[in-house]
Specification:
The protein is of the alpha+beta class and 573 residues long. It has 19 helices and 16 strands. It has helices at residues 13-20, 24-35, 43-48, 52-55, 89-97, 126-138, 161-185, 215-218, 227-243, 275-281, 286-289, 344-357, 419-426, 466-473, 478-481, 499-504, 507-520, 522-528, 534-537, and strands at 115-121, 142-148, 190-193, 206-208, 246-251, 255-260, 296-298, 312-319, 324-333, 336-342, 373-379, 408-413, 433-438, 442-447, 450-456, 459-460. α5 crosses α6 and α17 packs across α18 (522-528). The radius of gyration is 25 Å and the shape is globular. Bound molecules: fe (ii) ion.
């Protein structure tokens, strides 16, 4: 018999463990396999062939091959290089012309002589603020810009969401109080402030959103998309949800949950929410709470219906509003979270918070405890994308991407900025809500004698509706307006690899690496992840012109000038 290979010799065992990236258990399993006669796997095989049972929790979904590679391949919009605030003006010009509403679409509806307060902070890119100033001047507004100081821009990990929303809930409540005072003072006609959550009734002063953190976020067809299209997509979605009797949400990351969309949630015509529940939950802001929020359609009513809450099943995911998190599973019984499984540090913090609050009665809640599931909200804008530069830090986090069409964000805890939340805070209870995002959900609605699919594998089916396509055709190519700019690349789901080993056990590492390549080597990234080359070439200049509002092709290059998108060069194939 020959001598054992060097790596099997005892004296080197600890060196192997230290450098292999494998756990001791995994090494032992491989050692036993090799002693039993198997050849030693090559290094790349070692990664792919790690015994799943040694590391993967049994709850995590497994696939023999990525189920969505053909159906929902990844894509990312071209990385435009913006060097001057003037390049951003055409996008803001479109936003300035959109009709005002309280929703999450940026709709500033600027008027000559209007008294506008733009509220930003040091986490916003100065070039974006400068562009906003120019557009307010262009529209003849009497404007003020308040620059708040939020301290150094933090880098995030997903587990930060737990403290973030305990703090942020208070910040939002402070904003609501400030808006109340400002509304009574009558100094401004309109505020452009914040990019999530509720705003006040707008009888005296309008409040609209400021979602533009960086040039990358602003320079997108998401913000030039004609408002009639966004409105039609919202209405298509909302009309179906509110008419449904039962809703089931599945997602390949492990969600399978359903609830009854009780008549008791709605008024007698099922057009708006039940006015009694609205009066309880949204006292003082009933106009806002009685219906969906444009750009954020309520896949589950943002009200609790005591005695009837019957959300049941499991919700699982790898992203919250702040950043990717280790795979997390929530077990739901009658809309209450009865167990939080896995989740690394995020899961551990949530379990602690749950234990601290499980015995407490919150105002308006169906039973004891803080951890109730109330939200399954649906994004509707196909061109929202995950920002690459600076992710995840400061405002450049996963909050923005939740409004891409077909993405669902699950929310649990107190209902954001509702009166019940404010009542709970006044009683000294901990308030806040937390999230998991679903990027490839399939939502089926049980309707009167009929069922309908609302979202299929993350594709909001409003985008395929013939009437909406016809409307889009008035504004250019309907395929471009109604195709998502961004579909995340998830190993094991729509990219080669194993879902657990190459993604779900540490999604933040993958996403950071992926976005780094996407940002700096976009021409390589798209083919690396098997993306549809149509969304890299941009041959007709859809992304670089914001769907036709501007032409940046003369100056747009990939970062570091690797590749010119402007003339249809074959970057991906
Ligand atoms: Fe939400």
């Amino acid at each position: 018999m020959g001598r054992s290979p060097f790596w099997m010799q005892k004296q080197l065992t600890w060196t192997v463990i230290a450098h292999s990236g494998l756990t001791v258990t995994e090494i032992c399993i491989q050692y036993r396999q090799i002693k039993a006669g198997a050849r030693r796997p090559r290094k790349e095989e070692r990664v792919l062939d790690q015994p799943i049972s040694a590391t993967q929790p049994a709850l995590v979904p497994t696939y023999t091959s990525p189920p969505l590679m053909a159906k929902r391949p990844p894509r990312c919009p071209p990385m435009l290089e913006i060097t001057s605030s003037d390049q951003l003006l055409p996008y803001l010009d479109a936003v300035a012309k959109r009709p005002y509403n309280q929703g999450l679409h940026a709709c500033w509806d600027l008027k000559r002589g209007e008294r506008v307060l733009l509220r930003v902070d040091n986490w916003h890119d100065p070039m974006v603020v400068e562009a906003c100033k120019k557009i307010l001047e262009k529209y003849g507004c009497k404007y003020e810009i308040v620059m708040a100081e939020k301290g150094p821009i933090p880098d995030w990990v997903g587990a930060d969401e737990v403290e973030y929303y305990l703090r942020r809930t208070k910040e939002l409540a402070d904003w609501m109080d400030q808006w109340d005072v400002m509304s009574k003072e009558g100094k401004y006609d309109k505020l452009l402030w914040g990019y999530g959550g509720p705003v006040l009734a707008d009888a005296d002063m309008k409040i609209q959103r400021m979602p533009f953190i960086t040039p990358e976020i602003l320079a997108s067809p998401a913000h030039t998309m004609p408002y009639e299209l966004l409105h039609a997509i919202d209405m298509w979605t909302w009309e179906r949800v509110r008419a449904s009797k039962r809703v089931r949400i599945k997602d390949p990351e492990g969600t399978d949950v359903e609830y009854t969309n009780h008549a008791g949630y709605y008024d007698s015509r099922r057009e708006n929410f039940n006015p009694d529940l609205v009066a309880q939950t949204w006292a003082g802001n009933e106009q806002f709470g009685r219906t969906y929020l444009p750009g954020h359609v309520l896949g589950k009513p943002w009200l609790y219906l005591p005695g009837k809450e019957d959300g049941n099943g499991v919700i699982a995911g790898t992203t919250n509003h702040i950043a990717p998190v280790d795979w997390t599973q929530l077990v739901i019984e009658n809309s209450r979270i009865v167990d939080i499984r896995e989740g690394g540090e995020f899961g551990a913090k949530l379990r602690k918070l749950k234990a601290e609050t499980d015995h407490l009665q919150y105002p308006g809640f169906p039973g004891k405890g803080l951890m109730y599931w109330w939200e399954a909200s649906i994004g509707t804008n196909p061109h929202i994308h995950r920002p690459r530069k600076g992710f995840p830090s400061g405002w450049i986090n996963c909050l923005y991407e939740r409004v891409r069409s077909g993405v669902i964000h699950i929310g649990f805890g107190t209902i954001i900025s509702s009166m019940d939340e404010r009542r709970a805070a006044k009683q000294g209870l901990k308030v806040g809500h937390w999230h998991l995002h679903l990027y490839f959900p399939t939502v089926t609605l049980e309707r009167e004698g009929d069922n309908e699919t609302l979202i299929e594998d993350g594709r909001l089916l409003a985008l395929d509706d013939p009437k909406i396509r016809k409307m889009a055709a008035k504004h250019g190519d309907p395929d471009l307006w109604l195709s998502e700019s961004w579909i995340p690349a998830v190993p094991g789901l729509n990219v080669r690899g194993d879902y657990w080993r190459h993604y779900a056990r540490d999604p933040l590492s993958w996403v950071k690496a992926e976005l780094n390549i996407c940002r700096n080597w976009h021409h390589l990234f798209m083919s690396m992840v098997g993306a549809d080359p149509k969304f890299c070439h941009d041959n007709i200049g859809f992304w670089m012109t914001g769907g036709g509002v501007t032409d940046l092709s003369a100056t747009n290059t990939h970062a570091h000038g690797h590749h010119d998108h402007g003339h249809g060069g074959g970057c991906c194939g």
